[in-house]
Design the sequence.
């Protein structure tokens, strides 16, 4: 057998690679036996410069095991541009068992979930099941995890609430249950990336390819955040701009927890119904949904409803978390990864008006006669949905759908409205079914997705369009 | 000369006409010497059945003098279908001086205003002047009157505030000024019909043909409605759904005042900044803008900011006023005057996100080189505008405009943001300039106006499109 061609790249030891841990010293990483100088990529890293620097001077594999979004061909391709060398043949390959699977402790899941990533686990409710019930069953509720699911012992669990003037409250689960009245709220949670896959069809975006099921509605039970904050010594009002910051017990290899914040006014408002929830649809919180305690911020993007809640603190600044500062923000379609400035856009809080068709599904063949179109509609900020218009001809003519359920208290419409429309459809017709909702402030959904396209594929709320064929 | 043909219609006396004043007895009216049976039209009357019944049994002229919207050819044409007779030749024609012009006492106006109706007076700020200053000068601020401007003597003026348990507060102007702290708020008011003329181009609508200038921003000074309500004996919270109803001192010939209401929660909220204003941009309120006292409800459709305020009352129901119940509501494009059910839609309160281009104007020819595009952007509910996207090619590609001014306190962004974009434009190009704004809850404007068309032409907030030619 012929000898392998000798590499044209210089050889380095792991110890040599380990000297390159900062932009001053250059930032080197390894993947397999290849060595990369990614200094020029640090500031462009979609996950944030700090996250990439955690891996500086060493192997990428343990981090990629955690952030499985990297396991895509284009990531390796991008990396290849930065190759500067290879590990010396004397260096042992990285021990696969050393990169122990941090997701090994994740809970079992319902097989009916549509999985968009396994590690971390992200999965949505199948569209066909989404509007079968007003309350989404726990085991079919969409799951959006950023990190491995932490294993929390309910007996030793403590929620740390940092009060004013350095006072700290440490609440066990039973204290949280017994010291504060239980408050129940029916609220819809929606991921900022719901319906991202429609946006990807315009131009590629970074993020999980959600269909229309990264949304669900549950009856949440827990202590009001307001009650806990007042108990900790905070007042109804605070001069100036303040934020309530949440940290999860889920953390990355550097020890940084998932985190997010909401404005103080919302956190302390009786009308905003923000919960530290320990129940979901009458059951203990499932592990995937934040056992033993999660935040539920009604009317606000799901990313702020921090799961596995470990710490609550009040700060003059928003959460320093990557997910508050450098993710979950909206940008103009003209902004790309070279020009994006995360400090220029506000962190998403209230979401815009949204609706989607759950039945029939795109590409379906339906019999002639009466067609029943079904879907959901919801808006952020407690603004109730006042109307859903449905078109069978791509938006040329419209009918008004019937909304199920009852009107919520003004400004506290936290739950979706399910809707349906029955209409005669002639044999052989090609339909483009479209829905659009109107909320209490008469905001509407945009006609098309292109003009709201953004590099992270969030806030995808254009008219939902479902092409359908009527059989003969 | 030949004799005129004898009419084929029966002849009636005014006294005979006067017996037909209700649907049971049939509803007859006269116009000139013609007699009409409008019974079948009563329920279809766009101004409401009650308004038409005020004229039952008599002449239309005194009412049409007030509601000058009737002085249009299609109204007479519609009326002709209901002709059932003519007045007896013995009846004297109606005395024109009897229908004295109720608008004779209206104040003088700035000649620069673009008038959309003289009686009642409705006029907008010319687009070219709209964004010259952040605060709209009082004499150029758009005027939306529904009735003649009342002549109010400030010395004898009393504001009637109906407190709980039958207690009534009667406040003179000096008491309103001296008993309550003066509060100042910079707020944009926008008519629900702003940009209606774009909607009319899709299909005709009923209403004044506003261009983009039925919007303006002023620094309002007055007592907080909250302070007056608390002084009158109301509490911070009330169980159940309550409304604060306002009545103006402007009234129709039947004595019915202009009226509107807002939810109690907004009225009493410190953060909602609702004013009983007696100052506008540092001056006494002008007569056209409600002298001596008007309501200013920031973030809400102008129709609720009742001018010439006479009465404030708290009620379990919204204002019974025509303008609250049967006007200023949004409907699906599929709803027409035969199918409209005003009880099916909520009264407009918060308005959706809005923006428009003030420079250049549609059809303009601009020189090649650098073009400056200017405009305004605003959203309801105190949600600040976070971004304005501008396209020069009809929405295919976008740039981000520069917002002037500063970010407002969260949730209290009551004033518009002026914006501009400078862009190179090549000689001879045909541009379609487009703008669209994004507000704090990431709501956006719809792409096109057709799908938000509604029979009253309100809530017209599609992308603003301005075709422009670049000269050679």
Sequence:
């Amino acid at each position: 057998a012929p000898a392998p061609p000798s590499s044209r790249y210089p050889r380095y030891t792991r110890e040599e690679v380990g000297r390159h841990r900062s932009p001053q010293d250059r930032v080197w990483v390894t993947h397999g036996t290849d060595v990369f100088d990614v200094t020029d990529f640090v500031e462009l890293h979609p996950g944030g410069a700090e996250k990439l620097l955690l891996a500086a001077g060493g192997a990428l594999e343990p981090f990629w095991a955690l952030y499985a979004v990297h396991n895509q061909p284009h990531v390796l391709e991008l990396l290849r541009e930065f190759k500067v060398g290879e590990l010396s043949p004397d260096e042992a390959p990285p021990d696969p068992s050393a990169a122990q699977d941090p997701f090994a402790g994740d809970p079992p899941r319902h097989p009916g979930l549509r999985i968009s990533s396994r590690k971390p686990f992200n999965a949505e409710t199948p569209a066909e099941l989404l509007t079968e019930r007003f309350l989404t069953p726990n085991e079919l509720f969409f799951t959006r995890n950023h990190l491995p699911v932490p294993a929390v012992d309910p007996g030793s669990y403590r929620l740390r609430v940092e009060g004013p003037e350095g006072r700290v409250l440490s609440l066990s689960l039973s204290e949280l249950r017994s010291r504060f009245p239980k408050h129940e709220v029916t609220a819809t949670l929606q991921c900022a990336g719901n319906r991202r896959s429609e946006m990807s069809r315009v131009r590629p975006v970074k993020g999980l390819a959600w269909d229309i099921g990264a949304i669900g509605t549950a009856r949440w039970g827990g202590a009001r955040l307001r009650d806990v904050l007042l108990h900790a010594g905070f007042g109804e009002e605070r001069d100036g701009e303040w934020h309530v910051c949440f940290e999860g017990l889920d953390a990355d290899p550097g020890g940084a927890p998932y985190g997010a914040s909401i404005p103080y006014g919302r956190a302390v408002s009786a009308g905003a119904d923000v919960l530290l929830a320990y129940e979901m649809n009458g059951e203990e919180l499932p592990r995937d949904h934040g056992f033993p305690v999660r935040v539920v911020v009604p009317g606000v993007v799901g990313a702020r409803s921090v799961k596995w809640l470990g710490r609550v603190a009040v700060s003059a600044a928003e959460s320093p978390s990557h997910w508050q500062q450098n993710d979950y923000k909206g940008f103009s379609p003209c902004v790309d990864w070279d020009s994006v400035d995360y400090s220029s856009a506000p962190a998403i809080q209230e979401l815009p008006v949204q609706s989607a068709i759950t039945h029939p599904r795109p590409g379906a063949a339906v019999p002639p006669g009466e067609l029943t179109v079904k879907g959901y509609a919801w808006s952020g900020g407690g603004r109730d949905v006042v109307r859903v218009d449905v078109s069978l001809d791509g938006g040329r003519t419209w009918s008004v759908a019937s909304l199920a359920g009852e009107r919520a208290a003004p400004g506290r419409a936290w739950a979706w409205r399910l809707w349906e429309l029955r209409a005669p459809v002639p044999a052989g017709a090609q339909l483009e079914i479209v829905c659009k909702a109107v909320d209490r402030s008469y905001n509407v959904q945009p006609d098309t997705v292109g003009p709201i396209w953004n590099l992270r594929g969030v806030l995808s709320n254009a008219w939902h369009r479902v092409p359908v064929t009527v059989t003969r």
Q: What stands out?
A: Chain B has a mean pLDDT of 93. Chain B has three domains: 11-87, 114-336, 354-470. The interface with chain A takes residues 241, 263, 265, 271, 330, 332-335, 345-346, 348-353, 380-381, 383, 386-387, 389, 395, 397-400, 409-411, 436, 438, 440-448, 451-452, 459 of chain B (CB under 8 Å).
